[in-house]
């Protein structure tokens, strides 16, 4: 892969274990972009790294690109397709980030560099961390060894495996707090911080800062019509305040209420009467000098965070995903023709998410194959005939305990039994007089659900493209991709040539807009991704929405083009039209790739 000379100077290329050991022995913080040869390093971050290197001018800050294919120390990262950045100091892993989250990477870099200076000055200790991705790989290897040992008759102590894919990043609830000038001047800050700690409240950012009058006016602009506004401005700019961002390790906004409960009523007199143990009752003076401030809502907290800490992102939690289960539901042809909407509403009311949806028509042979376990039953012929009589709706339903929950909603398979013993069940409610068979199907076990979902929604690949007009919002788009259940099996970022653009849109070369489209596609960086998921081609087309963003806003307001598109030409993203188109474009962009059953690239990152 060709690189500019200055990029090589900025980022040392590490391709052997000896070179790896050499940088690990050097002083300072090393930020390592771990990659594999076929997909290359994350070139999009180079400009950010160069900028911060120039801004900081810190000799302790170093950047490298580590080739996992040939470095033994990075062996466990082989097979990881998403960008991965490791932070090493003194040969110790001190932080890690999976994904090209530029703000998070740069913030972590700055924090770890400051920490390393403290370590080298003898004012702090270096803290080693473990990357769950590597831990998972090691545990999988150990599990394989355990299976071999068990086959030989030895039963070892079981180890618990934690897979990174079982975890997700969610926004952590936070609030902004101010310890006001009168309390700071009295030297009470440490006492208040101790009370926060005793309540389990974490301080994730803090600084002592004296507001100017203009800043005080801006911060309290929502009170500008109050008689006391000018007096408040003078008080808040009269001396330094202590500004804090507080969390409690929870995804909800309960920290906002908890902190305000600790504060007590805004008026000190009311606080002393109604909540004498509150902070304002104990630390506040009369009038406006009520000691402390706390955000009154999630929206206010976000605004105040941006006011005091403009370069800080909202805090994130690395939490275990809910144990969401999936099951297959079928609305059979007769019910699909007459009762589809009512049944879908019942499904949504029960808390199921419709993760997959497809209208299908089975041939008689396919119906016989799907219900082959019922062959020999007196109803088999009628079942096969009706299942192949017309279109039906196949659904992948997701919810906690989805398999059992859906079967309980369905009721007994026998209609007469359902009507007698479970009249509120779906099979009883949506029975058809002219049809002796029940109208709904549900998987009978998690194992069967996987087989049946794979039957109707086989894992396949499609190409997704984030166009130059939406490149600046790629992180938000990637988040939406993950939310939709897609796995990013491969990705690359590039300024594509005119020849590549023309080849990519070859099927549209006779269109009037073809030249404009090509010119737009070569106007800036583009991100290409291979997405894997059940029914990926059609699923991705639903996620991106209609070609025209204006039409998308009306018909599919949650679609990517509705949210990020500008016009038909600059509509943010691209999706393949069918499986054949997807396969051709994967080959054009990524070359020959082989995919495992779970949608990952075999033997690659």
From TrEMBL:
Q: What organism does this protein naturally occur in?
A: Littorina saxatilis
**Protein known as:** Nucleoside diphosphate kinase-like domain-containing protein
Report the CDD domains cross-referenced here: NDPk_TX, TRX_NDPK
Family, per entry: Belongs to the NDK family.
Q: Which GO terms describe its biological process?
A: CTP biosynthetic process; GTP biosynthetic process; UTP biosynthetic process
Q: Name one Pfam family in it.
A: NDK
- Spans annotated as Disordered: 139-166
Q: Show the InterPro entries listed in the entry.
A: NDK-like_dom, NDK-like_dom_sf, Nucleoside_diP_kinase, Nucleoside_diP_kinase_AS, Thioredoxin-like_sf, Thioredoxin_CS, Thioredoxin_domain, TXND_domain-containing
Entry's Gene Ontology molecular function annotations: nucleoside diphosphate kinase activity
Q: Where is the Nucleoside diphosphate kinase-like domain?
A: 172-316, 324-458, 459-597
What ranges does the record list as Acidic residues composition bias?
142-153
Gene3D superfamilies in alphabetical order: Glutaredoxin (3.40.30.10), Nucleoside diphosphate kinase-like domain (3.30.70.141)
């Amino acid at each position: 892969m060709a690189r500019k000379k200055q990029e090589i100077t900025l980022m040392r290329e590490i391709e052997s274990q000896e070179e790896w050991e050499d940088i690990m022995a050097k002083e300072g913080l090393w930020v390592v972009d771990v990659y594999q040869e076929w997909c290359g390093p994350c070139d999009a971050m180079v400009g950010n790294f160069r900028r911060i290197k120039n801004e900081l001018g810190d000799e302790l800050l170093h950047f490298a690109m580590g080739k996992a294919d040939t470095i033994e120390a990075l062996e466990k990262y082989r097979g990881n397709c998403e960008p991965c950045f490791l932070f090493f100091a003194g040969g110790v892993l001190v932080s890690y980030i999976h994904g090209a989250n530029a703000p998070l990477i740069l913030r972590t870099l700055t924090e770890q560099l400051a920490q390393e200076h403290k370590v080298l000055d003898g004012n702090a200790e270096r803290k080693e961390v473990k990357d769950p991705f590597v831990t998972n790989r090691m545990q999988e290897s150990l599990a394989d060894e355990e299976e071999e040992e068990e086959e030989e008759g030895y039963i070892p102590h079981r180890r618990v495996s934690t897979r990174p894919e079982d975890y997700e990043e969610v926004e952590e609830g936070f609030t902004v707090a101010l310890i006001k000038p009168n309390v700071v001047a009295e030297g009470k800050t440490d006492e208040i911080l101790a009370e926060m700690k005793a309540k389990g409240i974490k301080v994730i950012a803090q600084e002592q800062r004296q507001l100017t009058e203009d800043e005080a006016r801006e911060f309290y602009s929502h009170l500008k019509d109050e008689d006391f506004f000018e007096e408040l401005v003078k008080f808040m700019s009269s001396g330094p305040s202590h500004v804090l961002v507080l969390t409690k390790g929870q995804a909800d906004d309960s920290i906002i209420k908890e902190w305000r409960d600790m504060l007590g009523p805004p008026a000190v007199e009311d606080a002393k009467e109604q909540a004498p143990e509150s902070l304002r009752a104990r630390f506040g003076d009369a009038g406006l000098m009520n000691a402390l401030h706390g955000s009154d809502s999630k929206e206010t907290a976000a605004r105040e965070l941006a006011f005091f800490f403009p370069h800080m992102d909202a805090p994130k939690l690395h939490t275990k995903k809910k144990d969401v289960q999936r099951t297959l539901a079928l609305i059979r042809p007769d019910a699909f023709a007459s009762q589809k909407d009512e049944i879908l509403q019942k499904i949504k009311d029960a808390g199921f998410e419709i993760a997959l949806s497809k209208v299908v028509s089975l041939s008689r042979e396919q119906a016989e194959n799907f219900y082959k376990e019922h062959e020999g039953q007196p109803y088999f012929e009628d079942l096969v005939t009706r299942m192949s009589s017309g279109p039906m709706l196949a659904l992948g339903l997701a919810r906690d305990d989805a398999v059992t929950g859906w079967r309980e909603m369905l009721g007994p398979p026998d209609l007469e039994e359902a009507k007698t013993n479970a009249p509120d069940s779906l099979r009883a409610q949506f029975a058809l007089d002219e049809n002796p068979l029940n109208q709904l199907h549900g998987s009978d076990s998690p194992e069967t659900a996987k087989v049946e979902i794979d039957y109707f929604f086989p894992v396949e690949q499609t190409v997704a493209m984030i166009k130059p007009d939406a490149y600046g919002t790629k992180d938000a788009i990637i988040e939406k991709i993950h939310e939709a259940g897609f796995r990013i099996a491969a990705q690359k970022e590039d300024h594509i040539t005119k020849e590549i653009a023309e080849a990519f849109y070859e099927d549209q070369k006779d269109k009037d807009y073809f030249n404009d489209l090509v010119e737009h596609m070569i106007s800036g960086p583009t991100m290409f991704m291979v997405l894997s998921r059940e029914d990926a081609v059609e699923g991705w087309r639903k996620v991106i929405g209609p070609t025209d963003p204006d039409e998308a806003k009306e018909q599919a307001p949650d679609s990517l083009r509705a949210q990020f598109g500008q016009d038909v030409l600059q509509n943010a993203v691209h999706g393949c039209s069918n499986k054949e188109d997807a396969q051709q474009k994967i080959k054009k962009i990524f070359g020959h790739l082989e995919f495992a059953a779970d949608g990952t690239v075999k033997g690659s990152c």
